Amino acid sequence: MSSAASLSPPAPGNGAGGHDDRKGPPVSDMARMIGLSIPAASLPDVVTNAVLLQGYADMLAGFVLPDTCEPAYEYTP
């Protein structure tokens, strides 16, 4: 298994985390609020991506850094 696969949040439909995966994020409502039109054929993939991104956001929000960590002053890719 690659390291990226081990760090990925659970795929939609796996039922992990007590989340009701049958109910996706309100993508259509969010798109309407910002004036974005999503073709009906693309909506399932957009919802899947939104669920995946929410999983990553939840994972990052739950990552606690101790106050003793040194800040990264410089980043060199």
Topology (SSEs and partners):
Blueprint: H1 3-7, H2 27-33, H3 43-61
Describe this structure in words.
- By secondary structure, this protein is mainly α.
- The protein has a domain at 25-59.
- 40% of the residues lie in helices and 0% in strands.
- It contains 3 helices and no strands.
Task: Report a brief summary of the structure.
With 77 residues, this protein is mostly helical. The protein is built from 3 helices and no strands.
Number of helices: 3
Mean pLDDT: 76
> Order of SSEs, N→C?
HHH
Low-confidence stretches: 1-6, 12-22
Largest sheet at a glance?
none
Radius of gyration: 17 Å
The helix fraction, in percent, is 40-55%
Q: Strand portion, in percent?
A: under 5%
Query: What gap, in angstroms, lies between the N and C termini?
Result: 25 Å
Content-based structural category: mainly alpha
Protein name: DUF4089 domain-containing protein
InterPro entries: AtzG-like
Region (Disordered): 1-29
